Amino acid sequence: MRSTNIIIRKRIALLFMLAIVILSILIGRLAFIQFVRGDELRKDAADFRMREVPVEAKRGTIYDRNLNELVTSISTDSVYAIPSHVKNKEDAAAKLAELLNMDDETVLKKLKRRSSFEWIRRKIDWDTAQKIKALKLEGIGFAEESKRFYKQESLAPHVLGFTGVDNQGLIGVEKVYDEELKGVPGQIVVEYDAAGREIPQAMHEYISPQQGNNLVLTIDQTIQYFVERELDKIVDTYNPTSAVIAVMDPKTGEVLAMGNRPTFNPNKWQDYQSSIWDRNPAIWYNYEPGSTFKIITTAAALEENTVQMDDEFYDPGYIKVADRRIRCWKSGGHGSQTFVEVVQNSCNPGFIEVGLELGKEKFYKYIEAFGFGDLTGIELTGEARGITINPKNTTNLNLATMSIGHSIAVTPIQLLTAVSAAINGGDLIEPYIVKEVRDKEGKVIEQFKPKKVRQVISEDTSHRLRELLGKVVQNGTGRNAYVEGYPAGGKTGTAQVVGSSGGYVSGKYVASFAGFAPVKDPEIAVLIMIREPKGGVYFGGQVAAPVFAPLARDTLRYMGVPETRNMERPVMPYEIPQQTMEIEVPNVENLSLNEAMKELRASGFAFKTKGEGQVVYKQVPEAGAVVENGTTVLLDLNPPPDVPEGKVTMPDLTGCTIKETGSLLESIGLHLEASGTGLAAEQSIKPGTKVNKGTTVQVSFKPPGNSTN
Description:
Number of helices: 22
Largest sheet: 7 strands, mixed
Oligomer: single chain
CATH topology of the largest domain: Beta-lactamase
Shape: extended
Helix content: 25-40%
Distance between the termini: 137 Å
Structural class: alpha+beta
CATH architecture of the largest domain: 3-Layer(aba) Sandwich
């Protein structure tokens, strides 16, 4: 009995000891949870109970220099779901998908996710939001967000840029100044129970968003309108591949306007090809400037005193450099002339003499000083540096061609900045787009001022250069840029387009004009660049210079610059001098457009096109007519109405390569069966024959020396 009591006591003691150990472990665990992991678990519990609905900050407004609103933000609804609250998910998904024009499965997947918050569709229109609200679907809510609105739609879109669905800047100043514009987002915090139900009268917290700051640009809305107007005229008249106009205050570097074609509406940027909006040609496109670069050659030579105004030159129509003859644009040359006349006439041999006399070392000194081959520093993304030849590899031939604006590539903003330095007294000033950053109350937070990079030429040289360029507009190749009431100066330019793999592209040119006004005290500097104008006219003096006149006149009048009365007008509009002779119009009907263009150019004719096809169906004047050289031939690319539906007119393929023949036939719905190599010599169907689309044409190709008609 006694032994039994001892065993029981031992068991009780052991049980008691075990209880103490377990209790100690529990107390230790509780202490660990409470004191070590307490904050972490409290946060996890709060996260489980709380739902956060983001509230987007309103993006700052963008103004022009006169505080006209260019870009603002408007309120819009975004649809979200709390999946655990949506009861009949299939039904809700079907109704939402129908109203939001979405796929049922896509919406259903969002509703079935094990998450506390899911966006269904961001930034929907007002009507759709009202229809969804009327359904009163459980678990479906709305968050007020802001949507970017560009008030003038196609006004300077490459400069302003646009935003993405999360209101983040993607291009233009929207991207560059994204941090200043976007503000600080807020949120709505709501408490839910363990079952995911909103707790009545529980904790609801609203953290208000902070609106972004506003930007004031250097752009002037009215001047930008003038630029857009002139660009539209250029497109209507010449249908170029691209065109750029930029206007700058040459004294401060402020960009007053910058426009491009093609253009786009930033409110609907998704509807356009990315190639239209992803790059700004005004700061990105590299091109040979041609004779507009002669402004830099002139400035350098005047500054170095290697040429004087009355120095005599003789132009026989060409100049020989190394083993090459470089021709003047004027057949037969300009004969004897002073340097003033060399500049007025844009004489290539004269400028080459000036460049060679200047020498490689001094010439490159000014190329670098004016900023070529380097970024201008303008606050836009995607700027190109231009292209210059390494001085170590530069030959006399390179120096000669650079003197007249070839063998060097620039961007429009680069050239405009350099020209501004040449005419503003000699100071290279960094171009800029943004004047001020302001808070939502309008208080100026940050202000940007002109930034002088360096002095390139003296005030005296700049003064003499302005006078010379004024004579170009008054008496020389820039006469079509004459501005009624305002003495203007400038320089025309024409250069062939450089291909992507090097070398020049036949028949494709860049026409340009760099100008300023008034001559004595320039208020504006303008760069006009027109890439690949159509219609047979491509000289800068004929295509780009006439654009400057109305743009400069309207801009200066708008700015309140006093007009000069009784100005002497140029003797006549500037035209490319040509010898007049009567010649026979060649037959280009049934030729491909490219072949017709080559034929007409070779014969001394200009041309315009009507329609958008690739085959010439009719020409006016007709083949064989005797007219003066330079006459414009109208090429009708529209199939004649008497061609039955499903039929096409067989073109003349003679002289085309296999690739050209295949492309041409494919474009009009015919097939090629080729034999031989070289150029098209014989074809199974005669030119002008009406054939059914889908017909196979047998074409024999022979080496160039063996072709027959």
